Amino acid sequence: MGAEVVVEGLTKSFGNQNIWRDVTLTLPAGEVSALLGPSGTGKSVFLKSMIGLLKPERGRCIVNGVDIVTCSERQLYEARKLFGVLFQDGALFGSMNLFDNVAFPLREHTRKSETEIRRIVLEKLDMTGLTGADRKLPGEISGGMRKRAGLARALVLDPQIILVDEPDSGLDPVRTTYISQLFLDVNAQIDATFLIVTHNINLARTVPDNIGMLFRKELVMFGPRELLLTSEEPVVRQFLNGRMDGPIGMSEEKDSATLAAEKALFEAGHGSGGVEEVTGVPPQMRPTPGLPDRAGGRRRLDRVMQLLHTLPETAQEAVLASLSGEDRRHAGTHQHDEGTVAGQRPRGPRPSTHSVRHGRR
Ligand SMILES: Nc1ncnc2c1ncn2[C@@H]1O[C@H](COP(=O)(O)OP(=O)(O)OP(=O)(O)O)[C@@H](O)[C@H]1O
Fold first, then answer.
1. ipTM of predicted complex
2. Which residues are registered as beta bridge partners of 341?
């Protein structure tokens, strides 16, 4: 099973430029999470902080009992082996063929024989749909194949956590869906914890179990996908719809004068972009038939049913509407006439969407 990652009160600045502060979230073991946010909000900085390439000034990032922020170099060296990272461009060595690129971490970090290395590399190339491409150079293959090769390389040390930075960059919508499918297929096969940083709304709406969003130097929310996808927060609605109308501006957040001036323009009939209103919680993609069920998905179901009563009503409804008959049997629940699940009605006050940050410990 993948490792849980517990982030508490993480704060990162460069000199006197604060990037984000007090970020607290838990990536549940073996689940797929996504981190959204406008450009420049520090999503890549967050990924780099998780693997100790950057040092936040405050807070903790705990993986298997080790705090990545404060641990020794030796502990960090060991902890990094738990991570597989897929960078935007695959970060392949241009002069090495795919076999050698994928074999690289094994040759660097293990004492495995070439026979064993060959077995592992071919297995990972097969897992990522690259059988037969092992002798190709990165320059001879498409962007989608390069990403898959980057994923194959990220998998060779059997990571417990896989970090993915903007997997859709440079890919067409169809290839983006294929790589999304691959993430869920890999997750089903190895049960690793995933964190995907993305701007891609289709991916964000259909792939992750959990979604978070960074804005104005803070984590606006983090929780089950239904929480963000049903949120009425203006920044969330604007982001999901890709519109100019809202708090996100051209290069950063808008000041109140700009916001008011733009609002007047939109009210006077100037279009704010976007094609149609993106609403609702579409079905989540599933592993390709024939692959195992996602163990992380099962655990997520139990987890979300436990915290269901703490979610806003619209998110609760979306969770309940997404349950299959099998899910209901697994959760040991049955449906009432009005579509609620026995034993899972809200107990106590419901927090507003804005204040909910599930995963906080
Ligand atoms: N090593 C560094 N030194 C100084 N500033 C940095 C460093 N790395 C990142 N930054 C700054 O941190 C901010 C956040 O950058 P980051 O690349 O994490 O944003 P992002 O949310 O991933 O953006 P995008 O979606 O465009 O990739 C930017 O202002 C960037 O200039």
1. 0.96
2. 335
pTM above 0.90, yes or no: no
**Distance (Å, whole) CA 62 – CA 24:** 11
Q: Which CATH class is domain 5-82+159-227?
A: alpha beta
**Angle subtended at Cα 68 by Cα 59 and Cα 31, rounded to the nearest 5 degrees:** 90
**How far does CA 273 lie from the centroid of its chain?**
26
Indicate if ligand 1 lies below 6 Å from the C-beta of 43. Answer: yes
Which residue's CA lies nearest to atom 18 of ligand 1? 42
Residue owning the nearest CA to atom 12 of ligand 1: 42
Q: CA 81, CA 83: separation in Å to the nearest integer?
A: 5
13 Cα–ligand 1 center, Å: 10
What is the residue with the minimal CA distance to atom 27 of ligand 1?
A: 39
Ligand 1 centre distance from Cα of residue 183 (Å): 25
Q: Where are the domains of the chain?
A: 5-82+159-227, 231-267
Protein residue closest via CA to atom 28 of ligand 1: 40
| pLDDT tens per residue, range 179-218 | 999 999 999 999 999 999 998 989 999 999 999 999 888 9
Tell me if 220 CB under 6 Å of ligand 1. Answer: no
The structure tokens listed for 291 are 């692959």
